[in-house]
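Weekly modeling sync, notes
Attendees: AB, CL, MP (scribe)

Item 1: holo prediction request
CL wants a bound-state model with zinc ion before deciding which constructs to order. AB pointed out that an apo prediction alone won't tell us much about the pocket. Agreed to run with the ligand included and paste results into these notes for async review.

Input as submitted:
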Amino acid sequence: MALNENLEKLSNACGVTGREEEVRNLLIKLMKPYADEITVDKLENVIAVKKGKKSKPKVMLAAHMDEVGLMVKTITKEGFIQFAKMGGIDDRILLAQKVTVHTQKGPLQGIIGSKPPHIQKEEERKKVVTYDQLFMDIGAENRKDAEKMGVKVGDPVSFDVKYAKIGKDVVTGKAFDDRVGCAVMIEVLKQVGSTDCTIYAVGTVQEEVGLRGAATATFGIDPDIGIALDVTVAGDVPGVKEFDTSLKMGQGPALTVTDSGLITPPKILRMLLDTAEENKIAYQLETGLPGTTDAARMSLTRQGVPSGTISIATRYIHSPVGMLSLKDAANTAKLTVAAIQKIQIHF
Ligand SMILES: [Zn+2]
């Protein structure tokens, strides 16, 4: 299966933080042909192992399965759903979105509504409508009806957006953060061939709420090196200064020098840079962004794990729909494979 097809399946699947089951099942199916062994740990990270010729070094790849989304908080007596946010979502992008409420009885469609602007006072219209003033409308007659449809407090809610290819290499879709990392990880397992080192390809849970899955997975695996495959902010849109971020969609994998949780060890950064240059893969460097990735958690596990991040510069992350270049995703896989081959020499 090609990267594009895998990304489509992964993007359309739902895995709101803490409810990653659908993505996990899909990832198990997609990684199976290329893994010697697949296990699920107690926090429900999925770990695919590709055994090397020697047992060491152990390389851990991490791509998180979860996506930012919403959760049913209260059902009003009129049958509207009020919600909590799962992960970092800007309130301004919620209004009028189509959503899917994932109930035990199956998915329900809904839209996010608010008090109509026509009857808002002028002062009100100037303010951001915060999420606690918004609600989901699933067309229920009242609370009883909503419950009969299957809605329960705690049900996860995802954005109702389908994957689409809109340019030669450009695609749009939901949850590219971090389904593209998952798709790249599958690609790495597929392309890597036989190596001396043993590879642990991990689909982590609950990254968006504090890199939680990476904590238990890294402790269990006890790797010698960690590489997170994730997305980062593409700044190539109007209104963004180069100082804020110089990363551009379609200009190659981004290597993290520093972010808010990680200072990439020089040895790891050097290895990734040399690998990119030797293989003539265009890359970008990023530093000083406020976010972080699973690499931050990997690096602080046990006595420390030298870790780095390879990212795909993606537009509009943490909104209902993102945009990225498939070329960047393919080159991220290529760079990761080449780096793994180099690890055997360096570590
Ligand atoms: Zn991410």
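Recorded for review: The longest strand covers residues 225-233.
Action items: CL to compare against the apo run; MP to circulate these notes.
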